[in-house]
Amino acid sequence: AQSVTQLDSHVSVSEGTPVLLRCNYSSSYSPSLFWYVQHPNKGLQLLLKYTSAATLVKGINGFEAEFKKSETSFHLTKPSAHMSDAAEYFCVVTVSGGSYIPTFGRGTSLIVHP
Amino acid sequence: EADIYQTPRYLVIGTGKKITLECSQTMGHDKMYWYQQDPGMELHLIHYSYGVNSTEKGDLSSESTVSRIRTEHFPLTLESARPSHTSQYLCASSGTSGKVAIYEQYFGPGTRLTVT
User: What are A75-92's pLDDT values in tens digits?
Assistant: First the structure.
């Protein structure tokens, strides 16, 4: 069984300040972990992925995430928020060798103030 | 360019009508998925397919049906639309590279359905 918990439903930051979106997971087997971003009235776009290689993963638009097995976490960070980062972010887990059915978190809405 | 398409993007339709939401992908992916998402809310898996002639129901009970006759095409049909079906419907696909499964999903732009 696998599950994902996004610890914040909303995160509010000022433009130019760091972003931290938190995600914890549980998985019986080796997980693959993903972050997706969804802008209003759009589909989801892959930001970055972890698939058992380097634990610090760099993605698009300056985002990165670190896989911490001991903490079962995969938090998303960005050093400096931009207005265009305002969107919904989803953390997703899929188990290797499993059913290929991803489990989605409930999403975190990132609000960026000027 | 490899991509995933959904049509229509927006649909307003009356109660009782039959509708089909189209989804096509040009990436040759074997796995395809349909999600339902209310505004600002989480995604709910309603149908998925592992390949041609394979369809399964997802976690969220849905009155819709799907078919997978061709690898690239995964339409969703509502036989009789109701106001409770008003939502956004997202199609996604994922595939393999050689014998290795690729778990990341590629999403279409979505269809926003309103049933009056």
Answer: 999 999 999 999 999 999
